[in-house]
């Protein structure tokens, strides 16, 4: 079984929006989270979906699921105080319904242009290797500075990648990674793959896409609007 876990527990603080989280912002009459959910709902390999959501927005989410006929959502899960806690809440919520070898495809709700190909490649890789991260090669030179004032290192660009989501795992592995992190009092990780690496396990890479960007600023919103308006996304 392949389960999409959609993380929608953020409040969009970096965008300075106070009336609603960014995942609920309308783009041409449809909230960003709906674009994301529709892609997972329409994907033939995704069996069920769990959505991690802010408690105060849960009723709004239920209305959207009915309105847009998102039928694969099986679990609605209360978000935590951090990304790590939100993912672990999802793991606990679905644990009675899944097997150790089932695949969790964990994705940010504010990456609405994820393609079916990326999701399929995640599932295939996670089934084979246990843990998978979606990345794109870094096309810019990355500068490392320890103080924000001067260059301390210029890493080799050919070795650098930009992380995206989905991040996908066999259920037993990601559950063990989170429980080990909690036991070690590591409680605020922003990356599930790091928790798996901390176990000494390997994480394989699959290629993402520049269109699979995360909405974090108003510039991102403008770009998303332009892409959708021009119809240049190919959700296959």
Automatic annotation (TrEMBL):
What is the species listed in this Swiss-Prot or TrEMBL entry? Keratinibaculum paraultunense
Q: What is its EC number?
A: 2.7.7.60
Q: Per its UniProt record, what Gene3D superfamilies does this chain match?
A: Spore Coat Polysaccharide Biosynthesis Protein SpsA, Chain A (3.90.550.10)
**In this UniProt entry, which residues are annotated as the site Positions MEP for the nucleophilic attack?**
157, 214
Q: What does this protein do?
A: Catalyzes the formation of 4-diphosphocytidyl-2-C-methyl-D-erythritol from CTP and 2-C-methyl-D-erythritol 4-phosphate (MEP).
Q: Which family does it belong to?
A: Belongs to the IspD/TarI cytidylyltransferase family. IspD subfamily.
Spell out the residues of the site Transition state stabilizer. 14, 22
Q: Which Pfam families match?
A: IspD
Query: A Gene Ontology MF term for this entry?
Result: 2-C-methyl-D-erythritol 4-phosphate cytidylyltransferase activity
What keywords were assigned to this record? Answer: Isoprene biosynthesis, Nucleotidyltransferase, Transferase
**Catalytic activity entry:** 2-C-methyl-D-erythritol 4-phosphate + CTP + H(+) = 4-CDP-2-C-methyl-D-erythritol + diphosphate
**Which pathway is this protein engaged in?**
Isoprenoid biosynthesis; isopentenyl diphosphate biosynthesis via DXP pathway; isopentenyl diphosphate from 1-deoxy-D-xylulose 5-phosphate: step 2/6
Q: What name has this protein been given in UniProt? A: 2-C-methyl-D-erythritol 4-phosphate cytidylyltransferase
**Which BP terms does GO give this entry?**
isopentenyl diphosphate biosynthetic process, methylerythritol 4-phosphate pathway
Q: Which domain of life is it from?
A: Bacteria
Q: Which HAMAP family match?
A: IspD
């Amino acid at each position: 079984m392949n389960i999409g876990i959609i993380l929608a527990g953020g409040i969009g603080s970096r965008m300075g929006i106070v009336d609603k989280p960014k995942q609920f912002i309308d783009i041409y009459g449809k909230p960003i989270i709906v674009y994301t959910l529709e892609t997972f709902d329409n994907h033939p390999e995704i069996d069920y979906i769990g959505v991690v959501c802010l408690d105060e927005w849960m009723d709004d989410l239920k209305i959207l699921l009915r309105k847009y006929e998102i039928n694969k959502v099986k679990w609605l899960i209360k978000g935590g105080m951090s990304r790590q806690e939100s993912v672990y809440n999802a793991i606990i919520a679905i644990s009675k319904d899944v097997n150790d070898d089932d695949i969790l495809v964990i994705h940010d709700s504010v990456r609405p242009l994820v393609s079916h190909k990326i999701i399929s490649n995640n599932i295939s890789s996670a089934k084979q290797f246990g843990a998978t991260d979606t990345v794109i090669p870094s096309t810019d030179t990355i500068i490392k500075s320890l103080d924000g004032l001067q260059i301390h290192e210029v890493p080799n660009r050919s070795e650098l990648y930009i992380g995206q989501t989905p991040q996908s795992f066999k259920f037993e592995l990601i559950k063990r990674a989170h429980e080990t992190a909690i036991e070690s009092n590591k409680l605020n990780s922003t990356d599930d793959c790091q928790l798996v690496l901390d176990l000494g396990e390997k994480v394989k890479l699959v290629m993402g896409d520049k269109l699979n960007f995360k909405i974090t600023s108003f510039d991102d919103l403008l770009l998303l609007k332009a892409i959708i308006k021009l119809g240049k996304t190919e959700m296959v």
